[in-house]
Amino acid sequence: MGDVARLMRWDAKGGQPPEAFARLQNDPDFPHALRALARNMIEAGERDKALDGIFKDAGRYVAAMCAAYLHASGGLTLPRLKELCASLGILSMGGARALLLYLRYLGYVRPLPQTHGEPQIYVPTDAFVQTWRGHMRAALGSIQIFEPAVEDLIGALDDTDVLNHFSKLHSDNLFASARSTDQNMAFFRVFMQRYAGSQIVWMILVADKDCPPSGPVAFSVSAAARKFNVSRMHIKRLLNDAEREGLIRLEGGGTLALTAKGHEQLVFVYSSQFLCLLDAAARTVRDKAVREDRTRTQALMVTSEPAPHRIISESIPA
Q1: Which residues contact 265 (CB under 8 A, 6 or more apart)?
Q2: 217-218 vs 109-111, strand pairing mode
Q3: DSSP string spanning 77-127?
Q4: What's the number of CA atoms in the CB half-sphere (13 Å) around residue 28?
Q5: CA torsion 126→131→133→138, rounded to 10°?
């Protein structure tokens, strides 16, 4: 099976069937991809402080994803943002307006000249597009470990049309996953929805040769606080809450361990994220190939048409 054909296995039309979870988690490269995801996200945040801010705050991530998604799927306007937020059940109408102001404050979007009687259209700033492109590349780099065909897509993200198409499909998948998953799950509440919570998980994932760690791992609260620019007290509270929820055990001496519950929920959450990436990557590669074939066919049709003046001149006897 060729690399591209292998990648097409993950095209689930935006769904996440149980067999896809099983195939992913049984892949011997799954632990390596999981470690690569954590490492890539940490390194990407270190290179780009704007991206670090997006990773650190769940509200910023939702704002950034909404901006990228709406721009790629018809345009970012306040009415469309309200509609999206209502469909996701995440914000009120007033909250959507505040989110748009937040996007402008962060420098993620800017307004276009407004047409009279039409909603104001906003577009991502160049700085945000570069930041979002870096995020998508870092994420795709992790799944490239077991799907080498993703390498071509990573390079193709320089094409804004490809980036927008992938971002739309990926966001569609994440939105669908959020609607079908219990957002009150302990792992979401303690880590994913807390300030710098995802970054702390990534630090745990790269702390040991086994990924996720199968035993106690060293975890320095002071080092994490310096690395992610948060207070030690915040991290201690987060870890204490994680232990109270039965996700980790704090074993003293600067070590912690995932519990069976913590391991199960972590693997589920990141498997779902991988499936969102894999499905979007497969469909983007397929759609890109279809578009390129159509362009080539159209070009051949143009070049193969005989020039009318040549036919006329050749039909006139000398």
Answers
A1: 185, 186, 187, 247
A2: unpaired
A3: -HHHHHHHHHHHT---HHHHHHHHHHHHHHTSEEEPPPPTTSPPPEEE-HH
A4: 0
A5: 170
Summarised one tens digit per residue, pLDDT across range 55-76 is 998 878 888 898 999 999 999 9
146 and 3 in contact (C-beta within 8 Å)? no
Q: Report the 10 Å Cβ neighbour count for 30.
A: 19
Of the chain, the end-to-end C-alpha distance in Å amounts to: 60
Span 5-17, average pLDDT? 90
For residues 286-308, average pLDDT: 76
- C-beta atoms surrounding 187 within 10 Å: 22
Cβ–Cβ < 8 Å for 109, 122 = yes
- Cα dihedral value 4, 8, 13, 14, nearest 10: -80
* Tokens linked to 198: 């995802």
- Number of other CB atoms surrounding residue 231 within 10 Å: 12
Q: Which one-letter amino acid corresponds to residue 87?
A: S
Q: Supply the pTM of this predicted model.
A: 0.88
The pLDDT, as a whole number, for residue 148 is 93
Distance CA 136, CA 121 (A): 24
